[in-house]
Amino acid sequence: MSSPSFTLPSDQPEQRIPLWSTLIAGMIGVVAIVVMLALNGGSDPAPPAANVNGPEDLSRYLPFDGEKAYQHLKDMCDLGPRVSGTPAMQKQQQMIEDHLTQHGATVVRQAWEVRHPETGQPVTLTNLFGRFHPERTERILLCCHYDTRPYADEDPDNPKAPFLGANDGASGAAALMELTRHLGELDTKYGIDVVFLDAEEFIFDKERDPFFLGSTYLAQRYRSADINFRYKWGILLDMVGDKDLQIYQERNSLSWQDTRPLVIDIWRVANRLNIPEFVRRPRHTINDDHVPLHDIGGIPIIDIIDFDFPSPGYGPKYWHTQQDVPENCSAASLAKVGKVVLTWLQELE
């Protein structure tokens, strides 16, 4: 077995994998393809009652600083669009690596090459790991994607315009960066891997180009590598910075037998913390990075996502438009999501 430093076989920049290999398990399609289903079906029998004995004493829980997370979001957006393989993405990688190192993580770059969908030139993609207690064989996976789509394809004025991806890309990464300040302090038997996934949507033609390159590559390597650890649970954070935060239970996460208990547990934590933005019923079925990680890698992982940015189908929307900017995100939203995840981590048994 390899050492638990997560040096997976073939994690070398010169490694090439054909783009069609990422189509395993039906990964062709539009990222975050959403099926708007009825709001009442498939949830647990009834939401738990509100705390009737007054607010819970939360003093034992570690703090999550939404303002610090929001500053990370702004710092990433200051780099401009972070499309996979571009200089802005490379600067972002260094920014995140420096932060992880500062807070005690063992940093691993899982790099490989693909062909650029438009030019055919080689592009190096990188999944960036921050590992806490890498010697532990029972582990938790916390992940996000940190690339931005090349074009604002949903923009009504200019669907070929570049865009900042403040919520769709930077928000999950910003929340994970703030979480890393505390992961070394956690009193838990689990090791934790914080992973920034590349090329979730390295998409120039959505009818041709495959999605989820980073998560698919990680899932394939995790499934086939000779490693001495396994992920007990996984959480994907995506689009968690929306000012008008509404996080419903994602239907894939709720319907998979191995992940449903985690969904229930996370929303119970949110209820105890009196964070009503975690709405305890399902709304969307979303094809996101958690799908290849679950279906290919066998990792019990859920998606915490607010797909209504602010409200697809009901007025203006910011998703994949030039309006996906820091001003349409908030520190308060990042704080609520981060607090739920950090509290859940502290309570793990």
Would you give an account of this structure?
The chain contains 8 helices and 10 strands. It is α/β, with parallel strands linked by helices and 349 residues long. The strands form 3 sheets. Strands 2-3-5-4-6-10 form a 6-stranded mixed β-sheet, with helices on both faces. The protein has a two-stranded antiparallel sheet with strand order 1-9. Helix 1 packs across helix 3 and helix 6 (260-272) packs across helix 8. The two termini are 27 Å apart.
Span between N and C termini?
A: 27 Å
What can be said about the biggest beta sheet? 6 strands, mixed
Tally the beta strands.
10
Overall CATH architecture: 3-Layer(aba) Sandwich
**According to CATH, what is the topology?**
Aminopeptidase
Q: Supply the number of helical segments.
A: 8
Which strand-content bin applies to the residues? 15-25%
Question: What string gives the helices and strands in order?
Answer: EHHEEEHEHEEHHEEHEH
CATH homology superfamily: Zn peptidases
Query: Which descriptor suits the 3D outline?
Result: globular
Structural category is alpha/beta
- Unreliable spans: 1-55
What's the helical proportion of residues? 25-40%
CATH class: Alpha Beta
Indicate the radius of gyration in whole angstroms.
19 Å
Strands side by side in the biggest sheet: 2-3-5-4-6-10
Task: List the SSEs and their pairings.
Elements: E1 34-36, H1 66-78, H2 87-102, E2 106-115, E3 122-132, E4 138-145, H3 166-183, E5 191-197, H4 213-224, E6 230-238, E7 247-249, H5 251-255, H6 260-272, E8 278-282, E9 284-286, H7 290-295, E10 301-305, H8 331-346
Helix pairs in contact: 1-3, 1-8, 3-8, 6-8
